[in-house]
Amino acid sequence: MVQFIPHIVAIPYPAQGHVLPLMELSLWLIKELGCKITFVNSEFNHKRVIKSLSENDDVQDKISLISIPDGLEPHEDRTDLKKLTESINEVMPGKLMEVINMINSNDSQISCVIADENMGWALEVAAKLNIRSAAFWPAAAATLASLFSVSKLIDDGIIDKDGAILKAQGIKLSPNMPIMNPSDFSWATFPDPAMRKMIMDLVADNNERAKFADWIICNSAKELEPGAFAMFPQVSPIGPLLSSNRLGSSAGHFWPEDSNCLKWLDQQPHNSVIYVAFGSFTILDLTQFQELALGLESSKRRFLWVVREDLILDGDDSAYPKGFKDRVGSRGHIVKWAPQQKVLAHPSIACFLSHCGWNSTVESVSNGVPFLCWPYFADQLFNQSYICDVWKVGLGFNKNEFGVIGKEEIQNKMDKLFGDETFKERALDLQAKVNSSVKEGGNSNKMFGKFIDWIKTQRGSI
């Protein structure tokens, strides 16, 4: 009897924080299911991923990495999210349909499409081709709950139909959920009204298209967000999905990882290093960048700092305060991109100065590392409220009258975090709860098992 091998098409939203967790899910499915996966990046991001693979990376032996155009020219600005989203919606659905039809014509029927929930059009493509699908949500379930609640928020007069805030006081989406500040809603963090309206229209479309999906799976755990999962029981927690738990390495990075920083960490005392990283999108102006540098210097603490090539607005190596690198010497180590999960698992790491993206949040929580929170945009502001107000495993910074987080404030919050052992104690307690969820018999582990069992039953077009 010929063994049936499921063939899955996975398509992420074209941003680093979305590609990484869907790639991780894909690698987990291969480990647990032995399935075939075709991973569909945009052409622009596909080239970055391939270029950043190390010689030892075997992801291409496991996953078929392919690409389709996003409709923009190579030189066009993909940080212009309005322009990118409009182009994606116009070009990518037809291209994805072509890819699936091509695969199906080669005697390898697609069993299932797993699409980032932000790419709801891909769920619609699957439905048109009579293929089962799952929507993957790579962020907090509470953020998805806020998107699913948009119509009610409009009806209750909290926001208008274009996403503008009408009532600024904190609200609860349900009695068991934490208080959410309307200004922290992901769409509300964009100051441009046209951008906000486009996001609201996209949210409405994606809420409808999510109904095409047989599953909505989320890279979170019930132990982290009991209220959100109770409010929307159709959202299934299967995370946090970490490469360390499958004894592998993460894949799908847009920049090459500098693993030499792990050797530097090996030389540092336990629980002594501040890890500073802002993800793939954050941009700091020169003043803010220099205040951060001076704050790290004046803290007299060891630090590992990830400074992407495009982190500083119109900046280069001369952006550092004069003499900064000489003064900090070997106490600080600066890289362009780091193997973050391995860094956060290192015993020398004491805390994470983070932009609070969800991947960074669950990676730090899974390693029992407390936070210093520096959110930039979108869901990161709400994630900070989870970290500081609900889980109480971190501290946020306050900006001065010029809208800058000053070096004194940075040093002050570092001293406060290092001086209060209860932050570490709570972080370790949360780590134990979350890690038990992904182990055999845990909530996320059992839900992931049910999802795998469902995939086993999918045999192409219905």
UniProtKB/TrEMBL annotation:
Keywords: Transferase. InterPro entries: UDP_glucos_trans. The keyword Transferase applies. SUPFAM superfamilies: UDP-Glycosyltransferase/glycogen phosphorylase. It holds the Pfam family UDPGT. Coiled coil: none annotated. The keyword Isomerase does not apply. GO terms for molecular function: quercetin 3-O-glucosyltransferase activity; quercetin 7-O-glucosyltransferase activity. Gene3D superfamilies: Glycogen Phosphorylase B. GO terms for cellular component: cytoplasm. Belongs to the UDP-glycosyltransferase family. PANTHER family: GLUCOSYL/GLUCURONOSYL TRANSFERASES (PTHR11926), UDP-GLYCOSYLTRANSFERASE 83A1-LIKE (PTHR11926:SF1412). This is UDP-glucuronosyltransferase. It comes from Solanum tuberosum. The gene is LOC102600071.
